[in-house]
Amino acid sequence: MKKLILVGLLMSSFLYANSSPITQEELKEQLIPSLTNSVVFEKFKPILAREGKIGETIKTFTKDGLETTNKVTVPSCVVKNTTDAKEEYIVTKEKFEKRYSFLKKENKVWSSFKPNGEIKVVKVKNDNEFFILAPWGEKMIVKKGDFLVSPLDYSEIYRVANKEFFETYKEKNTPKK
Q1: Of 8, 21, 144, 166, which sees the most CB atoms within 10 A?
Q2: Are residues 62 and 108 in the same domain?
Q3: Residue range of the domain that includes 57
Q4: Of the residues 66, 86, 114, which one is the last residue of a structural domain?
Q5: 109-132: per-residue pLDDT in tens?
């Protein structure tokens, strides 16, 4: 596997000076140079999805606890990853249609989809956990060993917890483990 770009000192100096969550603009300013040099990863595991209900709140739990919360405010899909944690999150219909292709209806509620998107990543090596503002404006925890990821257009940056990252992503053009 090619070496991942590691983020540590870059984020550390910012974090000690500012205890507020790091905004999307600040993340992009700090991380896009590293992301452009990162290898490309693709999500290989199919996901489950259902239509979200306006006003519905989804709490995203990974194996290491609560990651973030989001509320359906526009037409969206609730995605459930097929990881051990089965974490759920909200994706707007517009993003969902770009990132996933229908596979089959699983039951009355859930359908399975193949992921289409590619991302660039940086691995976090800060010892102290911190918070970022997720693209939907809610706090999202980031811990040592996690990955900050972005689609190839750098339109947003979000966390993927370490365990779930390796359950769902692989370097592009490499065989699945």
Answers
A1: 21
A2: yes
A3: 46-114
A4: 114
A5: 999 999 998 999 999 998 899 999
Structural domain count, the chain: 2
Strand positions, DSSP E, 31-172: 40-43, 47-51, 57-62, 65-71, 76-81, 88-92, 100-105, 111-115, 118-124, 130-133, 139-142, 147-151, 158-160, 169-171
**What confidence category does residue 3 fall into, taking pLDDT thresholds of 50, 70 and 90?**
very low
Are β-strands 118-124 and 6-7 bridged in parallel, bridged antiparallel, or unpaired?
parallel
List the Cα angle 75/80/86 in 5-degree steps.
155
Residue 8 lies in a domain: no
- Phi, psi for residue 73 in degrees, rounded to 5: -120, -15
Same structural domain, 127 and 91:
no
Residues 52, 107, single domain; the answer is yes
